[in-house]
């Protein structure tokens, strides 16, 4: 719990109930399935089609009267940008990983700006939509910065990976699949651009923010803020953003209807409503895999433990019900 | 003047004096020199250094008490992205030109988010800064969409250009330099995301918006908004944005201290204060080159003709004085 404690100490959360009295303020984190084809392809047309489909469930949440902040992942998109960097490196200067994250915020943000207004209009809630470039501050002393562990981009044969290692990158051997780059994934400490999110929410906007976990930056001793080569987990960032904008509810949309115990075994059992203490116990027992459900469960627990009313992990199609606590795995405070 | 007339008819401008009473609201358009090294190089470190330098003059404008919207060009940045698209096309899907524009909004926006707060703090005006993803609508019937004329990206030998032409692109022979891609540059008709700019200005933010002329989109007959393969002139977009957010002043920052008559000849003569009718006459006489000063002069004229108090075209170092009408070429209404 050290990480959570540090976040709590460091960031300046907005007071709860920052929105209109009695109105739910929800942060919705969209997973990769909201932005790629069912087979995982991520051509521009695949991304546009997926986001157009996702706009319907999002508009349903807005139609309940909730104030909504959207955030999203960007794995395949950043992977593609890294490949372009590599293949063009002798002709144009490669850009750092924080720039790649920024680039995906704008392309995914623009697709949401195109797709949401028609979906909102169809449901009779013609609310304006805005997309913000958003930076997430991390601690330069975070030990995770020194232990790259998050695989990213494409697999390469050993001899090609070796060239990238000579250029200072960290690559790991994944056996038959080949080698893959691993990058640091530090803890989010502060959403530096949370203030415009709150201002736009208060003005009636649906806000897209902190995509891809936010652009990773550190603040140097002299106050300078600068990007770093890292990616931040988008669900952990969503939990922090939710707290900083005074949201009541955090919904993590994914491609399964709920979190399961003993996932992938014949004894798998979906979790419905659960108190955060029980979920932490199951987490400690190792029920939730590091690279998939683990960060979502961790993000949900952090949000509720820091005072959030409710977190839910649910299928994209049921996010409106999940906001109300009636679908997915719903996590609430321990009584 | 047909283009101006259409823009006036089509867009819904905010009323003048939309900001605080008596407070100047200024849109500042940053040119390429604010984002690249003096020799034109655009590696990430060159861009960060240039934007850090530009932050000083921008902060000076804010320190005068003005409300400030920043917009910016993106030529070298988009050029680099196009090269990456080409060189990686067999491995990852190329993305369309509107996505490239979006990508540059986020990287340049993030650099401004990093660079401005320290500059503002040094001048005692710690205003918050926000960067928005911004789309600019164009008319699908704009004849400029059918006549690609804006050169973009790198020069290639004829045989390589021919391959791109076979893929549907338009390339033009520039003689000894080689061939270069030309793209459509339609008229901006509406800044679709002007509303969040106004909302953030009203909440005290310095706002970065509509970079690279905005992400070019069209609205289909069924209401669908979608990106198109084009780039929009950043100064014409700045003039439209200034009108839509009810700005008093438009300043176009560039790498010369003022507009000149007979530029590049021994009889060159810088223009100081000028009324818009006189400037239009000089424009008609051919004083301002298409690819350089032409669009800046056109943008300044449009802004003043549509009711803007003052436009200025000035060196980056003098933008605070230019906002006040005391530096650069200052264009005001004809009396």
Secondary-structure topology with pairs:
Two copies of one chain form a homodimer.
Chain A: H1 2-10, E1 25-30, H2 44-63, E2 67-72, H3 75-87, H4 97-122, E3 129-131, E4 135-137, E5 150-156, H5 158-166, E6 171-173, E7 179-183, E8 190-191, H6 194-202, E9 206-208, E10 215-219, E11 225-227, H7 234-244, E12 249-254, E13 260-261, E14 269-270, E15 273-275, H8 276-284, H9 293-305, E16 310-315, H10 319-323, E17 329-332
Parallel strand pairs in A: 1-2, 1-12, 2-9, 3-9, 4-10, 12-16, 15-17
Antiparallel strand pairs in A: 4-8, 5-7, 6-7, 10-11, 13-14, 16-17
Helix pairs in contact in A: 2-4, 3-4, 7-9, 8-9
Question: What report would you give on this structure?
Answer:
With 335 residues, chain A is α/β, with parallel strands linked by helices. In chain A, the strands form four sheets. In chain A, strands 3-9-2-1-12-16-17-15 form an eight-stranded mixed sheet, sandwiched between helices. A four-stranded mixed sheet of chain A has the order 8-4-10-11. In chain A, strands 5-7-6 form a three-stranded antiparallel sheet. The longest helix of chain A is centred in the first third of the chain and has 26 residues, at 97-122. In chain A, helix 2 (44-63) packs across helix 4, helix 3 packs across helix 4 and helix 7 packs parallel to helix 9. Chain A is built from ten helices and 17 strands. Helix content of chain A is 37%, strand content 21%. The two termini of chain A are 19 Å apart. Chains A and B meet through helix 3, helix 4, helix 6 and strand 11 of A and helix 3, helix 4, helix 6 and strand 11 of B.
């Amino acid at each position: 719990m050290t990480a959570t404690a540090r976040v709590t100490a460091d960031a300046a959360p907005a007071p709860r109930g920052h929105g209109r009295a009695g109105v739910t303020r929800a942060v919705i984190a969209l997973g990769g399935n909201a932005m790629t084809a069912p087979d995982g392809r991520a051509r521009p047309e695949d991304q546009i089609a997926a986001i157009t489909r996702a706009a319907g469930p999002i508009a349903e949440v807005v139609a309940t009267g909730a104030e909504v902040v959207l955030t999203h992942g960007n794995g395949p998109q950043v992977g593609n940008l890294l490949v372009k960097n590599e293949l063009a490196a002798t002709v144009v200067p490669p850009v750092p990983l924080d720039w790649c994250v920024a680039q995906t915020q704008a392309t995914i943000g623009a697709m949401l700006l195109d797709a949401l207004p028609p979906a909102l209009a169809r449901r009779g809630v013609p609310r304006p939509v805005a997309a913000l470039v958003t930076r997430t501050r991390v601690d330069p002393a975070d030990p995770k910065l020194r232990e790259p562990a998050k695989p990213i981009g494409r697999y390469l044969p050993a001899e090609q990976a070796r060239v990238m290692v000579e250029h200072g990158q960290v690559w790991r051997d994944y056996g038959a699949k080949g080698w893959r780059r691993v990058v640091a994934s530090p803890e989010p400490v502060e959403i530096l651009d949370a203030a415009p999110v709150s201002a736009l929410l208060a003005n009636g906007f649906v806000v897209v923010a902190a995509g891809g976990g936010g652009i990773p930056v550190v603040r140097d001793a002299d106050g300078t803020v600068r990007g770093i080569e890292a990616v931040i987990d988008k669900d952990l960032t969503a939990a922090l953003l939710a707290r900083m904008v005074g949201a009541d509810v955090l919904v993590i949309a994914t491609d399964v209807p709920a979190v399961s115990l003993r996932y992938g075994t014949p004894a798998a059992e979906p979790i419905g409503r659960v108190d955060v203490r029980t979920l932490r116990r199951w987490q400690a027992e190792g029920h939730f895999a590091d690279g998939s459900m683990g960060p979502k469960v961790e993000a949900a627990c952090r949000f509720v433990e820091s005072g959030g009313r409710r977190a839910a992990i649910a299928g994209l199609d049921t996010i409106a019900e999940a906001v109300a606590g009636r679908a997915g795995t719903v996590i609430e405070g321990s009584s």
